[in-house]
TrEMBL record:
<dbReference type="InterPro" id="IPR004114">
    <property type="entry name" value="THUMP_dom"/>
</dbReference>
<protein>
    <recommendedName>
        <fullName>THUMP domain-containing protein</fullName>
    </recommendedName>
</protein>
<dbReference type="Pfam" id="PF02926">
    <property type="entry name" value="THUMP"/>
</dbReference>
<feature type="region of interest" description="Disordered">
    <location>
        <begin position="270"/>
        <end position="298"/>
    </location>
</feature>
<dbReference type="GO" id="GO:0003723">
    <property type="term" value="F:RNA binding"/>
</dbReference>
<feature type="domain" description="THUMP">
    <location>
        <begin position="139"/>
        <end position="249"/>
    </location>
</feature>
<dbReference type="GO" id="GO:0006400">
    <property type="term" value="P:tRNA modification"/>
</dbReference>
<dbReference type="InterPro" id="IPR040183">
    <property type="entry name" value="THUMPD1-like"/>
</dbReference>
<keyword id="KW-0694">RNA-binding</keyword>
<feature type="compositionally biased region" description="Basic and acidic residues">
    <location>
        <begin position="288"/>
        <end position="298"/>
    </location>
</feature>
């Protein structure tokens, strides 16, 4: 009897225990998807494949350093200096009030993208991503000093929305207003030359030309497309289901915001100027020789 029972029991499979690791699983799923969502602002950081984590560390350091120059952080400790004179009860009340205050958001934080060669640093107000990146790259062009080792490009993101034409048009209209509605002293619209730089990654439901046409139409009449010498460049970066937008200055002059191209640009300009001067000198010398030969013959 016991033997038969053992045989029956032996045929039954042992039920495996299930262990729930919600925290670990949620963390993995969080890091395995594109976590930039509509409404976020920040900077897209381009780098070599496999160097994303190092690029993030560099970006956080560089952006915070230059950001603090443009937007000095408010001193949290700028309170009354006579704390020592407060009585015990008032001091405790002050500490309790401080604990109840909401924690301030970090100005710069990494948002995982799960995309090769692409990182995203979220930036909180009052920092303007376009002004920050322009300031940073302008200084890089002037100083020609390496600021990063792993980053190849910084692209600011002022607004982000769902990658649908209707949503893009709404976000673009709000973004474009301060740039394309300016008027002169007589009330006439100031015409601006502009270009659109658009790239689509890992998204098949929307094509690049549809975005470009929608953005150009949103700019409105009175302005001119100029791909060679634009005053303003509209950047549109689509990744999966999110479209990221910004309006920037000096996009062509700053080598399409490519760090590697900016480095050495001054040397190239100097070399070109030297070559042009040398050529002019050679032409003048040849002309002088010809004049002298003509005089001798006469």
């Amino acid at each position: 009897m016991s033997k038969r029972g053992n045989q029956n029991g032996g045929n039954k499979k042992k039920k495996q225990k299930i262990y729930h690791c919600a925290k670990e699983n949620s963390t993995k799923s969080h890091h395995n998807k594109f976590n930039v969502t509509p409404g976020m602002a920040g900077v897209l950081v381009m780098c070599s494949r496999g160097k994303e984590s190092r690029a993030v560390k560099e970006a956080l350091d560089v952006l915070s350093r230059y950001g603090d120059e443009l937007y000095p952080p408010e001193a949290n400790d700028a309170e009354d200096s006579d704390d020592e004179e407060l009585d015990l009860e008032a001091s405790i009340a002050k500490e309790v009030a401080a604990l109840k205050k909401p924690t301030a958001k970090k100005r710069y934080s990494n948002i995982t993208t799960a995309t090769d060669c692409v990182a995203f640093i979220r930036i909180s107000p009052p920092v303007n991503p376009s002004k920050l990146v322009h300031h940073m790259l302008t200084e890089l062009k002037e100083t020609q000093k390496y600021m990063t080792r792993y980053i190849s490009r910084f692209l600011p993101v002022e607004k982000s929305c769902n990658a649908h034409i209707a949503d893009i048009e709404v976000a673009a209209k709000a973004l474009f207003e301060p740039h394309f509605t300016q008027k002169d002293s007589e009330g006439n619209l100031i015409s601006r030359k502009f270009a659109v730089a658009c790239r689509v990654r890992n998204c098949t439901k929307i094509d690049r030309m549809s975005i470009i046409n929608a953005l150009a139409a949103t700019v409105g009449p009175g302005h001119k497309v100029d791909l060679q010498e634009p005053e303003l460049t509209i950047i549109a970066e689509v990744c999966q289901t999110v479209c990221m937008l910004s309006v920037v200055d000096d996009f062509n002059e700053l080598k399409k915001y490519n760090v590697e191209s900016i480095l050495g640009s001054n040397k190239k300009a100097e070399s070109a100027a030297t070559a042009a001067t040398t050529k002019e000198a050679e032409v003048e010398a040849d002309e002088e020789v010809k004049v002298n030969e003509t005089k001798e013959q006469s």
